[in-house]
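Figure S4 source data
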Amino acid sequence: MGVPPYGAQRELLLLSDTDEAGLPRHNPMPRAWTLWHVRGEVNVPRLAAAMRAVAAGNDVWRARFAPGPELVCGAEQPFPVTTVDCADIPADRRLEAAGAALGVAVYAPIDLRHDPLAGACLVRLAPDDHALALVVDHGFADHATHTRFVRHAAAAYEHPERTPPPVPSFFAYVAETAADSRRSASREFWAEVMSREVPAVAFPGGRWKPWRDTTATAAWPLRLGGDTAGAIRRGRELTGATGSGLLLAALSFLLGLWTEADVPVLYARGGRWTRKSLEVPGALHEAVVSVPPDDIPSPSLAGWVRGLAAANAAAPPLIGQWLTDFGGVEALRERRRLVLNVVAAERTFTLGSATIGPAGRLLRGAVRPPAGRRGFPAHNALHLAVTWSAEQPELTVHHDPEVLPGAEPVGAALVRFFELLAERPDIEADRAADLLRATWLRAADVPTTAAPT
């Protein structure tokens, strides 16, 4: 069964060298990757077997381009796990050697017709210390996919006698949605919604974006630690909103601080959580859209979130490869981007007597692309980009593979929004807006007298 490539993959086809059939010979783009730290003694063959078992249940990682072009599933495609031993290298050169080995694995060019899309590289730093790079072509995975993979691999390592449950089939999902009788009506509804006039946002201090220019290495990370995670859970319980719904509401509310009308937000992600909470893998092929009605009853902050969640729930579902349907990915890349770099504090998982968790900055910073190859930093992060064009300021939030300028004001206000909702759900929405504006301005170090322009 073949399915059409979606936005991120069409971009790969345009960038790649192709053969006579129009299929890619070479992918010039770095792959999506995350770096993990394994602390404690680990059974390497057992860990490799656990990762291969989990990968076998993800059909989108076994996809291949076929004439058309279309995506087909290569059922027998392996999941390679390479191992490198750096434990005997002198300590003052060990991290550099490990980074070089990981860089080769991460940035190696691949043939999208034949080479495995996904794989892993495990570097031994000491008998009880390893670095693990998980690598997947960026057209077929996102950060959340990597995190779920590590979680499932840890479970498979702990219980090797159990067969890991398969991930819902991406190919079956695409076929089902393509045949859905509601697809045409859904497309028409969302096309009309996204063509509406969007209120312009005038940030304080005369800025065209809500933070100063900065370099990627100076990006400000928003760490979603235990307190914030608890506030998010409490906010969901109070309002009945889903995780995505709460994020959409928070971003709409924050952007609305600087405009006279509520701001719609589009949140694109790799894979779709259906209304039955069934997760379907993929890469940037689905989106969740918040379209505030003209008037949301807002006696309280919690009431405002409930009103927005109810309005979104009443909208038709986004069926099928929505970003491809509307050229979403291509449109995003043509516009100026504003990025909030959110570093999610993932849990540490058990591997027998060892643990696996996100690698620290020192280890991530050691991984360099080989000469002649360009690369991105290791993420272990969720990157949220707020995007609009000068002609039509639609605001978009999506997973972004690049670490671009950070946004401390937005991050600080986002955390404060979740705290207010959890601690003071009955606070008046206007009062909450005043507190969030003050939080934003303090983080931005902007004089409170600066008027929006």
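Figure S5 source data
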Amino acid sequence: MDLKDLLKKKKRSTKKQTAKNVAIGAGIGTAVGVAAGVLLAPQSGKETREDLVKTTKETLETVKEGLNVAKEKIEELVKKEKTFICGEDKEEEAEEVE
């Protein structure tokens, strides 16, 4: 295994771990926020359930949007790294690999 392969493997591993950490953090933050909002709301049971459904849907959309942004950034980084590793004159080949 040469240096290029080792660098590629290390960067790929780091990016995967970063993506996992972002997703886990977003999920935990969302769950804590929803739980705190429901538990601290001074409303009747019916109103609380309605708010819970509404908040859950909004939160799900927010998380989806955040994950899409993270995915786009990761894809952009991967493309840049492929270009860097393969060399600028081989940029088209790196895009074909995707």
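The CA atoms of residues 13 and 47 lie 46 Å apart. The first helix runs from residue 3 to 40.
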